[in-house]
Amino acid sequence: MREELIIAGFGGQGIMFTGTLLSQAAMIEGKFVTYFPSYGAEVRGGTANCCVTIDDTTIGSPVIINPDSLLILNKPSLDRFKPRLKKGGLLVLNSTLIEDEVKETDAKVVRLPATDIAERSGQIRVANIVALGKYLAIRKIVNQESVLQALEALLTGKKKELLGLNRKALITGYEYK
Amino acid sequence: MTTKRLMKGNEALGEGAIQAGCGAYFGYPITPQNELTEYMSRRMLEENRVFIQSESELAAINMVFGASVAGARAMTSSSSPGVSLKQEGLSYMAGCELPGLVVNVQRGGPGLGNISGSQADYFQAVKGGGHGDYHLIVLTPGSVQELYEMPALAFSLSEKYRTPAMILTDGILAQMQEPMEAVKIDTTRDENRDWILDGCKGRAPRKIRSLLMEEGALEAHNRHLQDKYNLIKTQEQRYQLINEQAEIMLVAYGISARVCYTAIQEANKKGAKLGLLRPLTVWPFPEKILQELALKVKAFLVVELNAGQMVEDVKLAVNGKTPVHFYGRAGGACVTPGEILKEIEKI
Amino acid sequence: MKKLFSKPESLTDTDHKYCPGCGHGIVHRLVAEVIDELGIREKTIGIAPVGCAVFAYDYWNFDVTEASHGRPPAVATGIKRFLPDRVVFTYQGDGDLAAIGMAETIHAANRGENITVIFINNAIYGMTTGQMAPTSLLGMKTTTSPFGRDPKLAGYPIRVGELLSTLEGTTFLARCAVDSAKHVLDAKKAIKKAFEVQLAGKGYSMVEILSQCPPNWKKSVPESLEYVRKEMMSYFPLGVIKDKTKA
Q1: Does C118 reach chain B within 8 Å, measured CB to CB?
Q2: How far is CA B270 from the centre of its chain?
Q3: Which among B23, B40, B144, B165 is least surrounded, fewest beta carbons within 10 Å?
Q4: Range of B76's domain?
Q5: pTM for this structure?
Q6: Is C81 within 8 Å of B197 when comparing Cβ atoms?
């Protein structure tokens, strides 16, 4: 089964890290995966997005035109990518920062206050990981265990101290009802 | 447990070059190839090899010239506007018969253009690029794995024929990540090194030059170069062929070949059979296989991220025997599988 | 019998194509003598420019490569970084070094590349038959400044040595001339010092040599020498411009 996901939000919300993390987890499971980041001129504050494609067979284009799923962390990204979502696709929204009027007939919409949840768990910066957890709880494209392994692979050196925080955020997202 | 690593195209290319024995790298910042220069700035020093961030692309290619003269596997990389600046040095290297590797991570043009992936520098890469009658050997990787493996091939062909080689890739392949296997790289070098300048101890002094003013000398030199290019043409055409039996054959390299591959997968679902000829060298151009395919297939569709460049070489090879169609998007836009399938319907 | 004079081993038997009175032949010989005296012929790699000295590789009896116009410092950088125990020098004219190749010149100097630059300043583009150079003096008539160099049109002659002296990366900079026996001997001393700086691994060295170009200056040889002494030297003073080895 092919899953095409676009992750989007503000620069600084960890969009690229989320995409790399999911890709790493898919690779750990021996799946085919491609990750393609937008690479705008601005470093912070602009919009950032990336495409992650996961499949059981060889992947051609890493560029996603009509995604199966969207993981959206801010309003401008919703406006930009919602029209491209496949009919009936999955839309996971960060409801802390987005007020939306998306109809259930267009997409399967999951609203989760990722930024609030992250703030309550002690670090606003992990809203991306909370949202990823929720997305994976619905689309079981990779196992939770693989994502935890991927976190260990990516958070090394000085970043190792962020491991606990990210693990907790992931599980909180998975368990959010 | 997999032995694969998730790697960015730019970095895989850098590591591949290092594994291939790159002894000197010279670079200048430009998007979307910065990760390659950054990667080399760390790894080359770790390996105790030469790294310089040069003052310009012009200086970088001339540093490659120097390191190559001294016998190094030397390399530089840039993106389209920067590669334009390297053309002077490439012409001199071709004239002086120096090996070396230039990477072009193509972006949209002309002018400053934009920073999106593109294939608009095909003409520049395969038709010479600088002044004078010459060709570069031009390799076109199609995955992060191939970005890792192709520098070794580029260095080896470049040394075998003593002519500069180019890896022609694009912003999408260079920026994307996918799992790759760090396979063992063959670093065997051509043994004929009787031309390098390392001091004349125990031998006669050597000179490296492309200036030939004596009566008939430059013409003779050009004849020699053309003999060499003809040999490369007969020996080194490389390609990948998918669904050989298909009636309609797509022709594409690099990122556009990957989009074609997705189009083929979608067509398969609907029962339609499409083929793909993916050149791995665009100079020498795989014209022999195209001539064979021209007698079998109903039509070719050439797909490029430009306004139609490689399609000219396809037409030359096919020589009117079979219709050749073109679909492309220019200015840093990427073609989509859906657009390709729509074009197929029109044929 | 004592041998008083012979051709340096570092020169070939090839006849020079330089014009009568030209300074290039003298400087080629000085470089060759210095290389012989330092015993470094077999580990020296020279870089010939584009300009009158483009055929330098025919005259020197050691490894020499060409470089495109203005790029010898970049080529030298590539060679020297890969083979740091060899002796690498560039031989450049004023157009090559101070016009089209100024960026390469400044950055090689600024990186403190351990190379030697021999810079022939004859205030004119010789090989292309007499156009204005970045070092042409004010008022100097050339084929592209027929009314004399006008600073409003063409700016001022560049004092390369002084310009480079502000860069932390430069070690030894000197300006010499080859208009008289005394100055020729001084020039040889400076060239030797420059190579010694490189051999000691002390960094970038450059010797600028004021030279005469009688045909393109439209002067006789004696008039040309007079022009070097009177006009060139008053704008481009001779002497050591910078010597960090003495600090």
Answers
A1: no
A2: 34
A3: B23
A4: 5-180
A5: 0.96
A6: no
Alpha carbons C130 and C217: distance in angstroms, whole number: 7
Smallest Cβ distance to B338: which of A20, A28, A65?
A65
Token output for B194: 């009787």
Token output for A136: 């994976």
Tell me whether residues B31 and A27 touch, CB distance under 8 A.
no
Q: Considering its fold, how many domains does chain A have in total?
A: 1
Number of domains present in the structure of chain B: 2
CB distance C102 to C159 below 8 Å: no
Between the alpha carbon of residue B263 and those of residues B43, B218, B299, B301, B330, the distances in Å are 38, 49, 16, 12, 19
Hey, which CATH number is domain C24-246, 3.90.1150.10, 3.30.1330.60, 3.40.50.970, 3.90.79.10?
3.40.50.970
Q: Do chains C and A touch (3 or more CB pairs under 8 A)?
A: no
Q: How crowded is residue C139: how many other Cβ atoms within 10 Å of its Cβ?
A: 12
| Rg of the Cα atoms in chain C | 17
Can you tell me the distance from the alpha carbon of B122 to that of B80, in angstroms, rounded to the nearest whole number?
10
* Domain segments of chain C as ranges: 24-246
Last residue of a domain, one of B180, B208, B229: B180
Compute the distance between CA of residue A2 and CA of residue B262 in angstroms, rounded to an integer: 12
Here the tokens at position A106 are: 């267009």
Contacts of B71 in chain C (CB under 8 A): 82-83
Is B227 exposed, middle or buried, given 0-12, 13-18 or 19+ CB atoms closer than 10 A? Answer: exposed
* Residue A49 and residue A79 in contact, taking contact as beta carbons nearer than 8 Å: no
For C138-192, the pLDDT digits (tens) are: 999 999 999 999 999 999 999 999 999 999 999 999 999 999 999 999 999 999 9
CB A133 within 8 A of CB A169: yes
List pLDDT tens digits, range A48-98: 999 999 999 999 999 999 999 999 999 999 999 999 999 999 999 999 999
Chain A: partners with 3+ C-beta pairs within 8 Å? B
Contact B276, B228 (CB under 8 A): no
Among C65, C76, C82, whose Cβ lies nearest the Cβ of B72?
C82
What is the chain A residue with the closest CA to B181? A27
**Distance of residue B9 Cα from the nearest chain C Cα, in angstroms:** 26
- Percent of chain C past pLDDT 70, that is, above it, reads 100
Say how many CB pairs under 8 Å bridge A and B: 71
Write out the residue range of the structural domain in which residue A135 sits. 3-175
Indicate whether B162 and B32 sit together in one domain.
yes
Whether this model's ipTM surpasses 0.85 comes out as yes
| Spatial separation of the C-alpha atoms in residues C100 and B118, rounded to whole Å | 32
Instruction: Establish whether the linkage from the previous residue to B99 is cis, with ω within 30° of 0.
Output: no
Question: Cα distance from B52 to chain C (closest Cα, Å)?
Answer: 9
Sign of CA dihedral B297, B299, B305, B306: positive
